[in-house]
Amino acid sequence: MYVAVKGGERAIENAHRLLAHERRGDRDVPELSLAQIAEQLSLGVDRVMTEGSLYDRELAALAIKQARGDLIEAIFLVRAFRATLPRFGATDPVNTGEMQVRRRISSTFKDIPGGQILGPTFDYTHRLLDPRLADGFVPEQPETSDVTQAATPRVTDILGRDGLIEPSPAADADAPVGDLTREPLSFPADRDLRLQNLARADEGFLLALGYSSQRGYGRNHPFAGEIRFGEVEVEFFAEDAGFVVPLGSIELTECQMVNQFKGSATEAPCFTRGYGLAFGQSERKTMSMALVDRSLRARELGEEVIAPAQDEEFVMSHSDNVQATGFVEHLKLPHYVDFQSELGLLRKLRQEFAEANEAPDMQEAAE
Amino acid sequence: MNAPAYNFAYLDEQTKRMIRRAILKAIAIPGYQVPFASREMPMPYGWGTGGVQVTAAILGPQDVLKVIDQGSDDTTNAISIRKFFGKTAGVATTTSTTDATVIQTRHRIPEAPLHAGQVLVYQVPIPEPLRFLEPRETETRRMHALGEYGLMHVKLYEDIARFGHIATSYAYPVKVNARYVMDPSPTPKFDNPKMDNCPALQLFGAGREKRIYAIPPHTDVVSLDFEDHPFTRYRFDAPCALCGAGDSYLDEIVTDDKGSRMFVCSDTDYCESRQLAGHRGSESAPPHKERAHG
Amino acid sequence: MTTVAELPAGFADKVLSAQSTFRSVMDAMARPGSVQRVTASVGAPAGMMRGAAAIALTLFDHDTPIWLDAAMSATPDVAKWLKFHTSAPVVADSSIASFALVGDAKNLPALDRFAFGSNEYPDRSTTLILHAESLTQGPNFEMRGPGIDGTALLQAMLQPRDLFQRLTINEALFPRGIDVVLVHDDLIVAIPRTTRLVASGA
Questions:
Q1: β-bridge partners, A275
Q2: pLDDT tens, A233-256?
Q3: Which residue in chain A has the smallest CA separation from B281?
Q4: Taking CB atoms and an 8 Å cutoff, what residues of chain A touch B79?
Q5: Do B74 and A5 touch (CB under 8 A)?
Q6: What span, in angstroms and rounded, lies between the C-alpha atoms of A185 and A84?
Q7: Based on the number of CB atoms within 10 Å of its own CB, is B14 exposed (0-12), middle (13-18) or buried (19 or more)?
Q8: pTM (2 d.p.)
Q9: Which domains does chain B have, with CATH numbers?
Q10: What angle (nearest 5°) sits at the alpha carbon of residue B8, between those of residues B4 and B10?
Q11: Does position A3 have pLDDT exceeding 90, yes or no?
């Protein structure tokens, strides 16, 4: 006698209880606080805010804790929460030219107004595991200097003054900004939607695509014109009140790539741009994003689309890690009935194959 | 902290309006995939987010909801989705196909005939029937616009040339109202004829791919085939080991590692209803012992 | 002048009224020719029937441009009420409207003044919401098409009198086309673009 499998509801509840237990780990070890995550795993928090499209350090830290450090799971938690939030409107564009810069480097000029500022970076650290960090290490206080009022103009603006780089497209205040979380995507997609897609895109996916463009799959000769990280003011124009309301400041990383030039009989040659922007300090992300943004401008710049990084439908349809992980992992769900249908067909085909191959032998034997 | 507060059936009203408008267009243009601004749901893409959004947009307090996965009310994902609506909409739920007003399904159409007034909501992973032949949305959209489906027939014909049969056993493409070629979601082709002239409204939701489509009641739905290779249903040739049904789609249960297997209804409500009505199969528990196990 | 405070109310219960109204419209669209009732209690501005007001509150928002016919825009009441309750933009160009509200159906403009959608995106079309004199009495209209088991019979007093004749363009245009929702008081009937008139008469 056979009894059908039952009790799925109890199984789910027990699995979730076990998950909560595993998340907590050894109960003799002190529990992580959200402040600890936000302060000491801050680059993970930055990534979750960027790909989760929500600037909230505390919620991102909570998501990382709840996700047991699985950042894609944490991004998913933040996205699902974000989808339920009411919208009051769009802020004015932030001005990264007036960023309170904490790090700022250019690989195109040795010195620039405002200077090169290394800031907090892994660059030039020797990647030697530091055993002192294992237990109670108190780092030195950082060096300080007086606040300078020196302006730090964007390198691309300096190039732009001489017309050496294409102008940054001016924002059309009346044109609505696309939002692929509110409108279904259709192709071809404009650059605003492409950049939004890339900002939310999986860092690893963009890294690989950007890398592939460097290795010749749609090469576009990039220079890191400038990478800057720091704080910018966010302002909202309140239509009812008729004035601008400051909302506070956020940390951003911006990367402007300077790429191979374009030009024609009627247009003087000039460098082209690739753009990357992310919450917090996310340099790998913004550099990869800038490379892929430039690759995706192939159609607009009259370049032949030959490589994956230049193919907007390919890139935009596969860049989102929440979508990708959902669909890959859905293969865990039962597929009994479609598999059964395939089994039935395969058995039939094999049977026919066997019969067809037996038949000549039998004929021979009969002869 | 920004503590979340959720609306009836989870979705906010603006999202519901957007989905409702898409549903109306989908009904008016049978088989056409209406793009919609699918939201990020609190469950993974590929696990029924499209079906859940459609269900959330139509569900009301007077509805009775049934959720099945692989034909069963008791598979973990079906339970999870049913609980989601129990929690966010407080609707009554049932396992009875006949009693339900809204049925959300993954991979099966119930065996019991559906009736007028019911809505069957399918979870769809890849809504585009031409996707595996042409990966580009821009191209497939053009083919649908022109009603140009030669590519699909070539594919089916190549199957016949190679295998002697159309080698598609699930997600078997259909033509709706003599116009649009449509993916029925990964249901076994056994279920295809149930879509034709069905008294219930059939709605299809694909969350990750952001498409909604529909078959109104009493609409012609034809499985694609050739005159010399007509569409056939497939069902393992055995009665259900629990209820003895000879007309239901069967799950194959492997019972040991020596090649033994048995076949039971994939539609658990159908199977249990038949057993309650006194039908028995080869592996049924004798009635008096069954109670002890309940 | 009407002030916001004097505007007729919308739905008593926004969430559940919109849900029940949507189900009536969905049933109407899924069963062309069948008469459905809007049960939600709803306020409506002068010149707009209750059923039309309920549909507006259920389906309109800032993403749906609305076109109003001369009867609906005779006084600013309807536009004001729509703006207050739905935030939907009222547009003068009927060819970009998601919905058209027609109070004086007798003077319905030619259908090609509305959006039919494209062959790639046939969903980008205008849905007409027409006031009808009666949806229970009047000449017979026998219809067939998806959603109908055999044929459906509607008895209605419709304007314009040649409405179904005009809608025959749906046959040639398909999948492009115009979907119509007829409203009388709290009753609604839908005629989607797939519905064909078989016979009519007194």
A1: A256
A2: 999 988 778 899 999 999 999 999
A3: A1
A4: 8-9, 12
A5: yes
A6: 20
A7: middle
A8: 0.91
A9: 13-223 (3.40.50.11310), 250-293 (no CATH)
A10: 55
A11: no
